[in-house]
Amino acid sequence: MPDLQALVTDFVLKLKRRKIEGSQATAKQTAELLRQVVSQQRMPYTNQASVLIDAVRAVGEQLIAANPIGELSNSYLFLAVGNIVRRVLHIIREENLSSTTAAMEGLGLTAGSDDDEGEHEDRPGLSAAAVAAAARSTLRAPSLQTLLEDIPESAVAPHPSSSGGDSEGKSKSADRGSRSKKLKHDVIEAINELIQDIDTCHELISEQAVEHIHQNEVILTLGRSRTVKEFLCAAKEKKRTFRVFVAEGAPRYQGHVLAKELVGKGIQTTVITDSAVFAMISRVNMVIVGAHAIMANGGVIAPVGINMVALAAQRHAVPFVVVAGSHKLCPLYPHNPEVLLNEFRCPSDLLDFGEFSDCMDYGSLGGSPLLHVVNPAFDYVQPKLVSLFITDTGGHNPSYVYRLIADYYSADDLVVQQNST
Amino acid sequence: MDNRRPPRTVSDPKVRQVGFVTPGAAPPARYLSEAPTAAAASSPPSGDTAPPAISTSPVMIPPPRHSPSAPLAVPNPSRRDSLQIQVGGYNPPEVLLESPPLTSPSSRMDDAVSQFSEDPSISPCNGRSEAAKVASSFPGSSGEMMVMKAGIVGGGSNTPKSSWTTASVAKTRPGISEKERGAVVGMQNDGAGVSKTLKEKTTKAERRALQEAQRSAKAAAKESGAGVKLSAAPGGAVPANTKQGKVVKPPAQKKDGPQVANPSVSSEKKVVDRPPEKDRKKDVPPPRMQFDDIHRVEKAKRRAVVYQFEAKNRVELFRHLPQYIHGTQLPDLETKFFQLDPMHPSVYKVGLQYLSGNISGGNARCIAMLLAFREAIRDYSTPPEKALVRDLTAKISSYVSFLIECRPLSISMGNAIRFLKNRIAKLPDTMPESEVKSSLQSDIDRFINEKIVIADKVIIRHAVTKIRDGDVLLTYGLSCVVEMLLVYAHEVGKQFRVVIVDSRPKLEGQVLLHRLVAKGINCTYTHVNAISYIMHEVTLVFLGAASVLSNGTVYSRVGTACVAMVANAFRVPVLICCEAYKFHERVQLDSICSNELGDPDVISKVPGRKDLNHLDNRADIENLQLLNLTYDATPSDFVSMIITDYGMLPPSSVPVIVREYRRENLWI
């Protein structure tokens, strides 16, 4: 355990110091850390799932609390951490559910008590059963049978916590002994799968490149995203010739890096300044950008400047395509995302330190300084500006994102930090 | 806006009201009273008196100053007054200039003959071939000068052309001139006979006189809005003359036609029957040089003073625009500084400053150019055997082509050059050289003062009425009008905050930021990518413009369109501040057909970011291009209002301004 605690604090420190670059790396490392948490967790005979959930949630809270501003206004790194924590929680629930339903079906009992007990203990405030039932209905594959089954279940669900709890617990306890190893093992397996998914999402996405990029297409992108790079390179490898305009993406100028990478692959690349985006967009066939997070409403949190590109693309009816792995799907609905989901970088990106020190003196006489430098890191792109999301599960409309999210997250976990609030 | 407009109570049909008009204001009086205050406030505005008057006063458009047809000597007295009041340093001789003494052609003819009697080659033909010789001895722009001469000989009617066309027309010139010379010589040889010398003498003088008279007639005709009708010229010309006219006339040049006209025909008569369509046709701006046309580029290169290297790895989309390796011209030019004969040092200096980017911005470049021309005119003396008007026009044209080689002309400069050439073309021949020079210099001063300095003040007075307390004003880059506006608004005590949006590579916003913060204005600085973030708090956007085109498109520093677009998306009004002399009748839909390419290397290097060296050896990489656009075109639907010296207009009114005031711009 101290070993684990050390790992967690180490990771938190890394996050705080921005040592981890990119949401993909963050997601992967978070998943690996949570795998450690799960594997080191000692499993009791009862309530295994809830124990696991508690452990993961505790770590997740720690990770998210590392963000100085709080969870709702977290940067993309913390969005990624939160996403992965939720994903792991969801995996545990799902694995538990599948094992219990397998057991239940064998015993001929109704499902649903297992989760109730766990939640009964640690958070009596929530109407746990209702939430769990709702969650379960979304977890299962929507077949006619489950639809039929769920109707009585949800009607019954609020009650059984008092009556059925003890009896069921006794009857199932023997069974759980045999399942104890199995659940943990399954969860770890599933987390491994998740890590693998994160690793391979680029390949899955770039496989679709040829379907979207045609011969002699002119593509515009801004900044650098690994997914975009892989996407374009995949199209190039399939013998498509096209031209790419890369807006440099001030103030990080990652566009330069992307341009160099693309040129290395033999793609015709033109670097333009960000201000020339509007001038060039009239000759562009498609805008392809990466994202930091896809919000539940289909909005996109992306590097700063993308909203400008999206507006220009809309004006010229150019398709605006966002490529992102499914680990970037975020189950939160954005509220005032330009401010609350943003992060501000150092002003020295824009102005040299000391250049305006004399002006600062002048200004501070009046109480507040005369000069403010605003250097936000992210833009929020409204769902209506996005033409298509290309994820590792295929292409999706912005209006469909909410459903994708229901596939990956459980409604219980939307608020990770519930104890503190 | 429409329902606020009062019913047409104004009796004077010439006074038009545009923009926001308060009912009950007496427009003409207001306008006149407003003008002096604007003129008087050449010192920093005192702040108390002017703004209230402005805020209530309607925005007036004075009647366009179409030059009335013949009796120019009796202009509208009221207009004269207003002109005199408006322009501070304005002395009577210049007012006289407005009405060139259109005395009888004969007397003028005499004058002209006496003036040029010492000229050995009086015949236009010989004169031209002479000019060609002289011109070809200049290193660079002989073709250009030739064209200008030909134009002047042809009646001076093609002077308002932009220099782009002259450059393109110049392509065909040299060969033809050779031919002409040959033809003339041949004609003189075979058509001579025994009485060759005698005949030549008489015809020379006659032809010369004819020429002068025709030119004056033509000028008069032109300024009255109509020209000489070709067929209206009755015979009466000497046979030799017609013959010559035929010989002289190059196949493409129709302007030489009126040469055949008889001097005895009064100019007033010809004036009337010119179809207006012909004049209308001239409104269409000439096509610009397309640099993907290899032949033309080759020819242009041969004439070039500046030795330039074409950049490698050019963007396919922008083949039609010139792009040179930046900095290669500079050392070459510097070595030429002392040997470059035809260039005046002040013009040369300005050219180098354009090249190095020390002077940028439409107004600054225009003023610098005009001042350089002014100096050149001051030091100008008509060489022997030359006519002042032709030689000076040719000189100016060669200066202009040199400046174009340093950096493509801005539209403001193009308009100013048009103005200057018109002034020169309109000069009466009888005027002594010193007077011509002083009048041209004061013309230039007047243009700078009236069209730029005072226009800016008027714009500021208009614009400041739109700023309310508590506003957050956003501006992009560095526009001198907007800067003056912000400073002025601060001085008159408006409470506001400024957001300065900037972009690479020029980072002109930092300059503005320095100046505004030094003035004590509360500023927020950000880059263009963050525009969607910052736009939430903005209430008004003020932008400058390099030009406003006839379809309402605002042609301005690259990035302006982005700012206007985002402002439009956030429902923030976009106000464009632009002097009316920058309006142009050209139309443009995108930023690609016409633009200016900057130095691509500045894109790869980010100052202060040593770690960004990914694009360093870009010349070796074949697939990589860097594109540094200088301008972009903002569609008119992003623009809420254009503030000019004629008032505040919607972008749809730009063609009206262009139509009504273009003539006035030319003939100030």
Automatic annotation (TrEMBL), chain A:
Ranges where the record places region Disordered: 154-182
UniProt name for this protein: Translation initiation factor eIF2B subunit beta
An annotated GO cellular component: cytosol
Gene Ontology molecular function terms on file: translation initiation factor activity
Ranges annotated as biased composition (Basic and acidic residues): 167-178
Family as reported in the entry's similarity comment: Belongs to the eIF-2B alpha/beta/delta subunits family.
Chief place where the protein resides: cytoplasm
Assembly: Component of the translation initiation factor 2B (eIF2B) complex which is a heterodecamer of two sets of five different subunits: alpha, beta, gamma, delta and epsilon. Subunits alpha, beta and delta comprise a regulatory subcomplex and subunits epsilon and gamma comprise a catalytic subcomplex. Within the complex, the hexameric regulatory complex resides at the center, with the two heterodimeric catalytic subcomplexes bound on opposite sides.
Xref: Gene3D superfamilies: Translation initiation factor eif-2b, domain 2
Key words, A-Z: Cytoplasm, Initiation factor, Protein biosynthesis
Cellular compartments annotated: Cytoplasm, Cytosol
Pfam families: IF-2B (PF01008)
Source superkingdom: Eukaryota
UniProtKB/TrEMBL annotation, chain B:
Alphabetized GO MF terms: translation initiation factor activity
InterPro entries: IF-2B-related (IPR000649), IF_2B-like_C (IPR042529), NagB/RpiA_transferase-like (IPR037171)
Keyword DNA repair in record: no
Protein name in UniProt: Translation initiation factor eIF2B subunit delta
UniProt keywords, alphabetically: Cytoplasm, Initiation factor, Protein biosynthesis
Subcellular locations according to the entry: Cytoplasm, Cytosol
One Gene Ontology cellular component: cytosol
Family: Belongs to the eIF-2B alpha/beta/delta subunits family.
Pfam families recorded: IF-2B
Gene Ontology BP term (one): cytoplasmic translational initiation
Bias (Low complexity) ranges: 35-53, 92-107, 216-227
Composition bias type Basic and acidic residues, residue spans: 1-15, 197-210, 267-289
Assembly and interaction partners: Component of the translation initiation factor 2B (eIF2B) complex which is a heterodecamer of two sets of five different subunits: alpha, beta, gamma, delta and epsilon. Subunits alpha, beta and delta comprise a regulatory subcomplex and subunits epsilon and gamma comprise a catalytic subcomplex. Within the complex, the hexameric regulatory complex resides at the center, with the two heterodimeric catalytic subcomplexes bound on opposite sides.
Region (Disordered): 1-128, 151-289
UniProt source species: Musa acuminata subsp. malaccensis (Wild banana)
Top-level taxon of the source organism: Eukaryota
Bias (Polar residues): 114-126, 158-169
